[in-house]
């Protein structure tokens, strides 16, 4: 994909309104349109609303244009996607690798949804609180997460740091997304496996996943009607040593959607789309199509 130096042309065009409009380009709906037909009416509307149409070279490939839009957005409108994508690039692909770690977004944990869960040799939930967010429901979210993951951190902006350090448990880590788009550790997360809950871990797994765990532990799954399978497997899981429960959970979640093709897909998409790629539910064929579309000129993708 061809890069460009058009950031210079955009220097006088930056602003929150433009960036907020561009943020709508980084959605599963836009990617779904591109996969289905090779073009996206939504993306065309976004560029029009952002006033960007005349600032884009229509012969540039779509992938490099997404990176251009992302540069504009992350400097002026750091929404939740910017935080997620920074975690994907700096932690999943920077600190770890796709051969040893996996990332899940909007991951259900009890009554909450974790913004980002990274599993490698252990489990780490990253809850995002942007400069656009309040801190409502945070206490309940952190309570749920601490019963599921060995490490829990909040990734946030300058304006929340002081308050967070006063109100959250000392075991919760705090990371700052700096103005240079790096993640600065303000306070590291502390491990406490003693409060992990096998029940909460179990309820975050799919049937095929907890069945695999129970078979590994017991040699077979219970011979009971399907209506009783969940209850029987959960009772077995809750009797397993907590350290072993956690290790089982980490191992199974590392394998979820972690085949070689999917890893290569994440590696090949533009830097700006890593978080969307990591959470993509597309089929193998759809992912091939999306990679192909990224090499097309943006002009061919807006009709």
Task: Describe the fold and architecture.
There is one protein chain. The protein is of the alpha/beta class. The chain folds into three domains: 84 residues, no CATH class; 95 residues, no CATH class; 59 residues, no CATH class. Helix content is 49%, strand content 13%. A six-stranded mixed beta sheet has the order 1-2-3-4-5-6, with helices on both faces. Helix 6 links the parallel strand 3 and strand 4. Helix 1 packs across helix 4. It is globular and about 65 Å long.
Helix content: 40-55%
- In angstroms, what is the radius of gyration? 21 Å
Measure the end-to-end span.
21 Å
**For the report, how would you describe the main beta sheet?**
6 strands, mixed
Order of helices and strands: HHHHHEEEHEHEEHHHHHHH
Choose one word for the global shape: globular
What is the average of the pLDDT values?
Answer: 92
Number of helices: 14
The order of strands across the largest sheet is 1-2-3-4-5-6
* Number of DSSP strand runs: 6
Percentage of residues in DSSP E strands: 5-15%
Weakly predicted, low-confidence segments: none
Helix/sheet category: alpha/beta
Structurally, the number of domains stands at 3
């Amino acid at each position: 994909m061809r890069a460009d130096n058009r950031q210079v042309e955009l220097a006088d065009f930056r602003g929150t309104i433009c960036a907020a409009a561009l943020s709508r380009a980084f959605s599963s709906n836009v990617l779904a349109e591109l996969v289905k037909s090779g073009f996206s009416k939504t993306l065309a509307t976004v560029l029009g609303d952002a006033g960007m149409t005349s600032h884009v070279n229509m012969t540039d490939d779509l992938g490099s244009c997404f990176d251009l839009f992302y540069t504009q957005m992350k400097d002026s409108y750091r929404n939740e996607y910017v935080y997620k994508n920074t975690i994907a690039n700096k932690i999943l692909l920077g600190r770890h690798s796709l051969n040893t770690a996996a990332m899940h977004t909007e991951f259900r944990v009890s009554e909450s949804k974790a913004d980002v869960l990274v599993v490698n040799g252990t489990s780490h939930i990253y809850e995002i609180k942007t400069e656009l967010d309040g801190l409502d429901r945070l206490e309940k979210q952190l309570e749920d997460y601490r019963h599921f993951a060995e490490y829990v951190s909040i990734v946030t902006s300058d304006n929340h740091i002081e308050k967070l350090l006063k109100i959250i448990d000392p075991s919760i880590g705090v990371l700052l997304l700096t103005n240079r788009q790096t993640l600065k550790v303000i306070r590291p997360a502390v491990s406490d496996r003693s409060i992990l809950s096998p029940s909460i871990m179990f309820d975050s797994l799919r049937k095929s996943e907890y069945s695999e765990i129970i078979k590994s532990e017991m040699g077979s799954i219970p011979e009971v009607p399907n209506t009783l399978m969940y209850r029987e497997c959960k009772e077995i899981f809750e009797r397993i040593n907590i350290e072993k429960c956690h290790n089982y959970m980490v191992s199974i979640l590392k394998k979820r959607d972690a085949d070689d093709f999917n890893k290569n897909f994440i590696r090949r998409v533009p830097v700006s789309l890593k978080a969307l790629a990591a959470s993509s539910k597309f089929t193998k064929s759809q992912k091939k199509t999306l990679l192909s579309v990224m090499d097309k000129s943006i002009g061919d993708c807006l009709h």
